[in-house]
């Protein structure tokens, strides 16, 4: 049974100390044993007539057949939509398939699965202006309560506005039986919040970016749940699994509150996204999102540790020269067919320009006492690696076949996926990419 009083977060407006009003449109969350059995009861409070249940081959076995059974017993008719791919990718082809399979008169989509299924269903239901429910199959990622959908469009990882699910079912009998690497992936996704909260605070100081202390505290709660329960979750203790699922959902609520992924995605995610794009371009098996994020977290904290070693040597950059045309060639080489979107972003923001680098480094050095205090609050990289090891999860990029070349390119160019200030932009601004990437490659590879 969930230990969280979800009503305090859901389906209401919350006037926050940050002077903004936060909202989360989720109506109900059930993280408990036999949660799927609640599906007919929840549906009875609504007037849905035309349901679609979306699964892939694995999630149908894990929970889909149970969902079918509960709906049939309650007298509901529904359409089954089944993805047959061995490894489902949330790209244009998968989107088109779902758009063509969901009838125009459908009024509820029930997504049975984890990250990819939900990213697709969340986006399609949003575009079709219909509700969607989630039946989770693994505590593997923090997107269950999210209001955005990360999709691969024209080879580029792009985050689209969407709307969160109306109801989330986390049946402990189902999610506790998920493969261990999926449970560990959920832990990895949450551990990444250490880095993203640091990045966010630095962006507030350097760029004046909006920040909300209460949302940060919500994310910290999600981190604590994972750290305290990782070892027990690896042994499939249901209470520990429930705690990790709670942490994942709380992280998603934080994203819903702020309206984007800033509270839950930083430099560790950007490296992960870059690796993912390279796996897909090479038609290579792509590890789970949270697996990559966990590794990205260890690497990002190591880079922050290296940055602290330079704290007395960093000075404002006055003579920075940004060779735009050379950089464009490097981006084309680093991103291949996905380069167009990255180049367009830089044209729009100019984040790498001489003026911006000069301004940011000036502020960074002026506010260095605040900045180093925030960075000092990070746990040691080795501590994060130990948590991952306790769940038999990889913690270095070579363990998931990220080559040293791709790893280095990620440190240089993953920052250009988003207009978000953080660790990787700091390394660029102070000219530390080459030195730090080489040091880290020697450590890891």
Q: What brief labels describe this structure?
A:
six-stranded parallel β-sheet; globular; alpha/beta; 445 residues; two-stranded antiparallel ribbon
Number of helices: 19
Largest sheet: 6 strands, parallel
Strand content: 5-15%
C-alpha end-to-end distance:
43 Å
Overall mean pLDDT stands at 95
Q: Which range best describes the helical content: under 10%, 10-25%, 25-40%, 40-55%, 55-70% or over 70%?
A: 40-55%
**Low-pLDDT segments, ≥5 res:** none
Strand and helix order: EEEHEHEHEHEEEEHHHHHHHHHHHHHHH
Rough shape? globular
Gyration radius, in Å: 22 Å
Numbering strands along the chain, what is their spatial order in the largest sheet? 3-10-7-6-4-5
**Total E-strand runs:** 10
Class computed from helices, strands and strand pairing? alpha/beta
Oligomerization state of this entry?
single chain
Short description:
This is Sn-glycerol-1-phosphate dehydrogenase. The chain has 445 residues and is of the alpha/beta class.
How does this structure look, described?
The chain has 445 residues and is of the alpha/beta class. The chain is built from 19 helices and ten strands. The strands form three sheets. A six-stranded parallel β-sheet has the order 3-10-7-6-4-5, sandwiched between helices. α6 packs parallel to α11. The longest helix has 22 residues. The radius of gyration is 22 Å and the shape is globular. Keywords: Cytoplasm, Lipid biosynthesis, Lipid metabolism, Metal-binding, NAD, NADP, Oxidoreductase, Phospholipid biosynthesis, Phospholipid metabolism. This is Sn-glycerol-1-phosphate dehydrogenase.
